[in-house]
Prior knowledge:
By secondary structure, this protein is low in regular secondary structure. It contains no helices and no strands.
Amino acid sequence: xxxVGAQAVVVIGQAAARTGNGLIEIVEEGSGAVxxxxxxxxxxxxxxxxxVNADDAVAPVSNTNGMVTIDLTNEAVGSDxxxxxxxAAARTGxxxxxxxxxxxxxxxIELASSAASSxxxxxxxxxxxxTGDVINLSLTNAGVGAQALVIGSQAAIRTGAxxxxxIVENGTGAVSTVRIDGAAxxxxxxxAVTATAAVAPVxxTNGMVTIDTTTAAAAAQGLLAYNNTATHTGAMIRVFDNAAxxxxxxxxxxxx
Length: 256
């Protein structure tokens, strides 16, 4: 029956450099499968059930503390840091929503690994026939120099069979595994492979682009170029050789 502006608990810390534990400390010594802190929303409230708000220049130590810090140093190896369970209803909101209005150079999300683990950094699995995209990147309003995805390899001799990007196609439909659509009159290439160093694929084994149809169906084509129906003035395939000297052919065809 309290007034709508009444607060149940208000804790105000001293205006000094505190050295003890937190303003509120809970020591859980139980062993039951019940929450230590349980917040239950039993009404149609439009406010957050838990809010952390900085009214001043709060400055937790970078890479040590944050506005919210979850430390699993001594936890059981099967513990989850954060677990979000969505309801079975037709949701229209996001399970996780990050709004970044910063103009600085800091990341919105940063993942850093400091040990030689064998688990995936990010993993997605589904047990239902979803119809949405797993990852949808929309750069409609981004700066013209923004990139959707940047991958930097380790400076070492990689030994894995899979490349930096590996796609395993298990489908049987007549749709593309990778598709690039030019939806605007761009003057740049839709796909560019450029060597900025002395890249040296093994001759007769690998190239800057390798298409291996060894185990493909007998009727499979390695490369197919379609012309458009308009009056075409460009070449379907064009090869430029800027080498001053060299004894190799521009195009070499071999039947093994």
